[in-house]
Amino acid sequence: MPNAVKHFYAFLKSIPIFCPFGVAYPRQWSQSAQLTRLPARKLAMNAFPRSDSGQAALDLAAPYIIDQDYASYGEEQHRVWAELAGRAFLELEKRAAREYLDGYAIIGLKPDRLPDLKAISARLEPLTGWNTTPVSGFLPAPAFFEMLAARRFPTTTWLRSRESLEYTPEPDIFHDVFGHVPMHAHTVFADFLAHYGRVCSGISDAVVLEKLGRLFWYTVEFGLIRERNGIKVYGSGLISSHGECRNVMEGLCAIHDFTLDEVVNTPVKVDELHKLLFVASSFDQIYDAMREAARRAVSGCL
């Protein structure tokens, strides 16, 4: 495996913002908040915070929220963005889901200029309520879930250097905005993501969170959708990784029809290219799966 791919996967494994599954949860939860671990069978639906308003209080995330100093970006940084976006979009015009491509146009991304997060939010909020909120860096899992529940997507503001075009050891604005944010313009996906945050905010059982993390991984990060003209990518890990996208489109990765049971019981491996991913028939299907996962979490049978 190329070193760049190894570094990419090591990076994903190390942070909850991109890898919300597995044994990372107990450590992240215990360090960032004093939370009582409850067995899944004791969860009640009223434990899931209901508010998804962008005006909701962000008690856990507040220390990480910053301002984007757009004027501080230099011309070299804009040129790096242009190179990254130009290389990726040539492939995505053929490979990406229509919903991603529509969202890319809706949020007003420019191929030659770094994104202004306030301008993106001004386009998104009237449409789906989502806001691209600048943060200082990594978030603990509870703060991440809190922001998703409030429709505030945590977005880093720094950009990788020209010497690090192939990978970066931590998330940058290219991954966060180019990879994730266009999908927030799609109403069903936007509702699904906020619902995911609300549900996870009310759960502290590590086993349940691991399974919900797999649902996140195989949709938000590495999701596929079936369109009339074939299978397309929409997950940010596929959007922003040429190697992973090519791995799928060249038939080197098995593709199963999306079912909740198989998804939540398929362990995530972050040290190799995917050998199995899942294709949904619609975004309504993954939202329905999230609702069913929440019901199962409450009854202790996820």
What count of domains describes the coordinates? Answer: 1
Number of strands: 6
Largest sheet, spatial ordering of strands? 4-3-6-5
Number of helices, where a helix is a run of at least 4 consecutive DSSP H or I residues:
13
Rg, Å, rounded: 18 Å
CATH fold label: Phenylalanine Hydroxylase
Structural features, described:
- This protein has 302 residues and is an alpha/beta fold.
- The protein has one domain (3-32, 60-299): Phenylalanine Hydroxylase.
- It contains 13 helices and six strands.
- A four-stranded mixed sheet has the order 4-3-6-5.
- The protein is globular, with a radius of gyration of 18 Å.
Summarize the helices and strands and which ones pair or pack.
Layout: H1 3-14, H2 24-32, H3 75-95, H4 98-106, H5 117-128, E1 131-134, H6 141-149, E2 152-155, H7 173-180, H8 187-201, H9 206-221, E3 224-227, E4 230-233, H10 236-239, H11 242-249, E5 254-257, H12 260-264, E6 276-280, H13 283-299
Parallel strand pairs: 1-2, 3-6, 5-6
Antiparallel strand pairs: 3-4
